[in-house]
Design goal:
about 15% strand; about 270 residues; alpha/beta; TIM Barrel; globular
Length: about 270
């Protein structure tokens, strides 16, 4: 079996055009941009994160109030074994405070106020726990799309699965990760659980890797072509493209028949 370990993905490993867009000053939106999505299912990236602060309860609730199929989040583990929803390893970008999640206690993490969409710190915006996120997805009947950030020990992967399962939400959860071993740990215990292997490129051997591990693909959108999509579909592999915020681009992928589009603002 092919072994791919990609525990951390610095910006330098992403395509140049993705990094350029990521670093641009963000535009604040009042409402989603509607598209002709055909049969493609839309995933709200870190919640509705062009309108509300990413990976927060307000962002997840707002996504829940819209027509999204799923709500994506990122998860890290704290020093004292709690699971928190945040993209980065530390809180500096989203709060101004330099707190490393894996080296910090629950009490420390929960006392950090994040900056809102306009950059102002607010007590409305704290770092949610995994269970808080799952319960929002459950309330609004959305699929939970959980990204395992970095590399987790197998026991911690299974612990997160059990937390979600206790809320009867495992059947409506998709796990995604750049780290193949994270997904293999899920596959080992839950052979039918939906998982998507995250990749910033369509590299040699990726089709065989997906087939061997019975995984779907979550790929940087510019790496997908119609020919590649057709090959993946012929092999029974579903495809999610990230992160698409341009209406014309998204409608192109929808016309091709891509299964999912992950977006910050399109609906």
């Amino acid at each position: 079996m092919a072994k791919v370990t990609n525990t951390k993905v610095p910006l330098k490993h992403y395509p140049a055009e993705f990094v350029k867009g990521f670093l641009k000053k963000r535009k604040v939106y009042d409402e989603t941009i509607k598209i002709e999505k055909k049969d493609t299912l839309m995933i709200a990236h870190r919640g509705l994160s062009k309108i509300e602060k990413e990976n927060t309860i307000p962002a997840f609730r707002l996504a829940g109030e819209h027509t999204y199929y799923g709500i994506e989040c990122d998860v890290h583990r704290s020093k004292d074994g709690r699971y928190f929803i945040i993209h980065d390893e530390n809180t500096k970008r989203v709060s101004g405070e330099d707190c490393i999640i894996e080296e910090s206690t629950t009490e420390r993490i929960r006392n950090i106020y994040l900056r809102d969409i306009c950059g102002n710190a607010s007590e409305q915006y704290i770092i949610p726990t995994l269970i808080e996120y799952v319960m929002i997805c459950q309330k609004f009947k959305k699929v939970a799309v959980v990204e395992f950030k970095n590399h987790f020990e197998e026991q911690h992967i299974l612990e997160m699965c059990e937390i979600i399962d206790r809320e009867d939400c495992l059947c409506s959860t998709v796990f995604i990760s750049f780290d193949l071993e994270n997904l293999q740990a899920v596959r080992k215990k839950y052979p039918d659980q939906p998982v998507q292997y995250l990749s910033s490129s369509y590299h040699e051997g990726i089709l065989e890797l997906l087939k061997q591990n019975k995984m779907d693909l979550d790929i940087y959108h510019r790496e997908l072509t119609k020919e590649r999509l057709d090959i993946l579909h012929e092999n029974g592999i579903k495809v999610n493209v990230w992160t698409v915020d341009d209406k014309k681009t998204a409608e192109k992928y929808a016309s091709w028949g891509v299964d999912y589009i992950t977006t910050n603002i399109l609906e």
